[in-house]
Structure formats: C-alpha cells, structure tokens
Design a protein that fits this description.
about 475 residues; mainly alpha; two-stranded antiparallel sheet; 20 helices; 6 strands; binds arginine
C-alpha cells in the first residue's frame, strides 16, 4: 500500500467523535490506536458490506433510492482508486472504515454521511473480517487440495518403493514410500474438513448488531445477509460484535495444518541429510552455506517447521486477546487482525511452496531399500508366520526375539540365517519362511484397507483422487 499520510488539513471536525472532545488526540496516541497500517486490507470487503448495507437502508425506506445510488457509485469509484494505488490512507482517520467513509463524503456530500445510519464500526469491522476470512478460507481449502494432488502424484510413482517404517525413529517394519506419503494426504483431508466446518461459523452476518444492542431503525438483516452471501445472521447483537471465536478457530485449524507440515518437514530434513540419503530436494528449495562448500541445506522444510511456531503464537495471541474481555466490543479486538492476517499469509504461501516442493523430490530407492533390510524389519513377519503355523503370538514373539539376537551377534539379517539355524529356534519353520522374510513378502502380506501392500496404496490413491474431485 501507499505510505500512510498524516494530514494537517484535518481539524477536529474531521474526527467522527470530535464534538465530545476538548483537545485533539495526542500524536503518539493516534499512532498507537490507529489500525489503518494493517486493516487497509479489508477495504474491498468494507466497500462490499457498505453497499449491501446502503442498499438495505434504501429498500427499507430509511434512506432514499437516490442516496443509495450515489453511495454505490461513490464506493465503487473509491474501490477503483484503492486498486489503482491512488487512494490516500490517512492516519488521522484511524482505520479503513473511517478512511473510506470520509472519502465518500468528500466525493458525494450528504448522502455519504447517511451511510452509517443504523450501523456502528463494531458490527462493520466484524462483518469485514468475516467476509475477508471467508474468502481466505476458500483459498486455503484450494491450497490444501493442490498439495494433496502433488502428494498423490509422488505417491503414485512410489506406490511400491520400499522404505523402512519407523517407530521411535528405529526401523520397525517395511512400508512403501507411497504409503508414507498417503498418511499426509489423510491428515490434509481432515484439515480440509476442518476448514469447511469452520466456514459454517465464519459465514454469519454481524451487521444489524450496530454498536452492541441492535438499532432502532426498521432494518432487514436477512436481506443484507443474502446480498453478502452469508448463510444467516448472528442471532445475538452482543455476541455479534464481540466474539472472534471464528477467527480463533481458523487460526487453530491453520495451526493444525502447520503441525502436520512441520512433522513432514522434519522427515524431509532427516531423509535428505547425508546420513539417511533417502531423498534429494531440488536445489531451488535449498541454499548453501557461506562457509562450508559441501553443504546443501533444506531451508524450506526448516522454515515451515519454524513458521509453525509463529502460527501457534498467533493462536495463543488470539485466545489470550479474548479471555479477559467483558461483553461487548472492546478496542482490544482491533488486535485480532495482525495475527489473523499473518496466519493466513503464512499458511497460504506454505501450502503453495510445499505443493511445488513435492514435485522437486527425487528418491534414492537403493538407500531406502538398504535401510529397510538392515533393521530386522521383517521380524514381525516371522512371528506372524509362526502364529499361522499354530504357535501362540506371545511365544512366537519370544522365539523371534531370540532369533534376532542371534542374527545381531552374527551381524546378519534374519533372511541370511540358514534354515537349520532358524529351525533351532522353532521346529515349525520350513523353507517357505524365506518368502515371508523378504521385504516384498512383508509388504504384500499387509493387504487390507489401510495396509501398506502396494495394491492397497494404489487403491488408496484412487479413493483420494475421487474424494478431491468430488468435493
Ligand atoms: N479499527 C477498529 C477495529 O479494528 C474498528 C472498530 C472500532 N470501534 C470502536 N468502537 N472503536 O476493531
């Protein structure tokens, strides 16, 4: 935006409340209390809300049809001035609402002064924030779906790529890389559902609540709600102007996405480190070190992990902002905007960069496979094999533990032990055991919905794609 001007041309009369005051507001206080430095972003929604409000006033006969027309034309012109970067935002006019209203009155005279009939900045700002957030919410859902699609593309390539699955960051059982990626597709699916649900509570109209108690004019709130695409009105005026729970909920839901992506980032960082060397992240997402020439740092995942803290901070800020406020509106609420705006900005850019980063991941299949075959990842398969031969699971568990211990001592894999050796641990073992001890045998045996068998991963990918295209 253009730099915010302070204007000396304004005198006391330019303030909306000037009649009540004996001295002008101190310069430092003006700066401290103004929100124009950040709430100018609400301008398109402020104008949209004002036109809907003025329209309703004219339909109800509260202002004339002629006044509505000039208000509408004036506001649309202001909208163009703002878009063209020609609008002069004035600090003296405190916030986006007063800046626009003053400009309107300068342009069209008395009709402009009638716009605020039956309305307060309290219900106005709550409306603007909801309209803005509704649009952001849609962009977030679209961003989440794009990320899911690029995860699905990668999962499709790697539906049968073997990697070690970990518990406690120790090799546990073989899984496919595609299956691992699909875990994140599931998380993001729930995140999408959370944002869709959040929209229900965002999409209610506060206008009509006026300052806090409603208004004595014969307004029609339902008309404004339907003009602005709200599903209904906020049903209590005090609640309408004071609560920001919908913003907190959005920030919580955003925190949840960031938490999911932070976990994934942690994995990308580990996997791309030379110690793991499972994947390579395209250079465009990494930077080098100014001192160590060999380094290629996974900056993007590290920053996603870092920015997760920033979004959690916004959630804490918003929760704390609300907790001490008596009903109804308090100026505290002006502090809702920066955390909310930054949450949205951070999340949207993170989703975009992440979707692109998925396209920049290459997999070192040999290293993944090697790691999967090193950690006795098929030990559970051997136990299951014994169970299928009639041994109780707990006994089988103990037999395999002894066999693993033996293999550890010999520094070999279970599948390297000769049949005679394996039979010393359990006579039930015969040479069909080797099929079970292979990585592919282990994967293919987990052939049920939610399992890691490559056919199941393929089926999960198809289901996920259908889900995304149907929603
Ligand atoms: N700039 C204010 C905000 O962001 C607008 C509402 C001001 N209302 C008031 N009574 N001071 O919340």
């Amino acid at each position: 935006m253009k730099e915010i001007q302070k204007t000396s041309a304004l005198n006391k009369k330019d303030s909306s409340w000037s009649g009540r005051f004996n001295e002008p507001v101190a310069e430092l206080v003006k700066k401290y209390t103004a929100s124009i430095g950040f709430d100018y972003r609400l301008a398109p929604y402020d104008i949209q809300g004002s036109i809907a409000h003025a329209h309703m006033l004219s339909v109800q006969g509260i202002i004339s049809q002629a006044d509505f027309k000039v208000i509408e034309t004036g506001l649309l012109e202001i909208s163009e001035e703002i878009e063209a970067g020609k609008f002069e935002w004035l600090l003296d006019l405190e916030d986006v609402h007063l800046n626009i209203e003053k400009r309107l009155t300068d342009k069209i005279g008395d009709a402009g002064k009638r716009l605020h009939t039956g309305r307060s900045r309290n219900d106005q700002v709550a409306t603007d924030v909801r309209l803005w957030l509704r649009s952001v919410n849609e962009q977030v859902i679209a961003g989440l779906k794009k990320l899911q699609l690029s995860l699905l593309d990668l999962a499709e390539v790697h539906f049968d790529t073997v990697m070690p699955g970990f518990t406690h960051l120790q090799v546990a059982q073989p899984v496919t890389f595609g299956h691992h990626l699909m875990a994140y597709v599931e998380m993001l699916k729930r995140d999408v559902a959370r944002f869709e649900d959040c929209r229900i509570r965002i999409n209610r109209l506060p206008l009509g609540a006026a300052a806090l108690a409603g208004t004595s004019y014969p307004i029609n709130r339902e008309l404004v709600a339907s003009t602005l695409g709200f599903d209904g009105v906020c049903e209590n005026s005090l609640d309408a102007v004071s609560d920001r729970d919908f913003a907190i909920e959005f920030t919580f839901t955003s925190s949840m996405v960031m938490m999911h992506l932070s976990r994934f980032s942690e994995e990308l960082i580990l996997w791309s480190s030379p110690r793991f060397a499972f994947i390579d992240i395209a250079d465009r997402f990494c930077t080098g070190s100014s001192i160590m020439p060999q380094k290629k740092n996974p900056d993007v995942p590290e920053l996603v992990r870092g920015k997760t803290g920033r979004v959690y901070g916004h959630l804490t800020a918003l929760l704390t902002l609300m907790k001490g406020q008596p009903l109804a509106y308090n100026k505290d609420n002006q502090e809702d905007k920066e955390p909310l705006f930054d949450t949205a900005d951070t999340l949207l850019v993170t989703l975009e960069i992440y979707a692109d980063m998925m396209r920049g991941i290459t997999v070192n299949k040999e290293n993944m496979r090697q790691a999967a075959s090193e950690g006795y990842a098929t030990a559970t398969d051997l136990a299951d094999y014994l169970v299928k031969k009639g041994m109780p699971f707990r006994d089988a568990h103990e037999v395999v533990a002894l066999a693993v211990r033996h293999a550890v001592d010999k520094k070999v894999d279970l599948s390297d032990l000769p049949l005679a050796t394996l039979q010393q641990f359990a006579a039930e073992i015969s040479d069909d055991v080797y099929a079970v001890l292979t990585l592919e045998g282990s994967l293919n045996s987990r052939n049920h919905i939610g399992g890691t068998a490559p056919v199941q991963v393929q089926a999960a990918i198809v289901r996920a794609r259908n889900g995304i295209s149907q929603s």
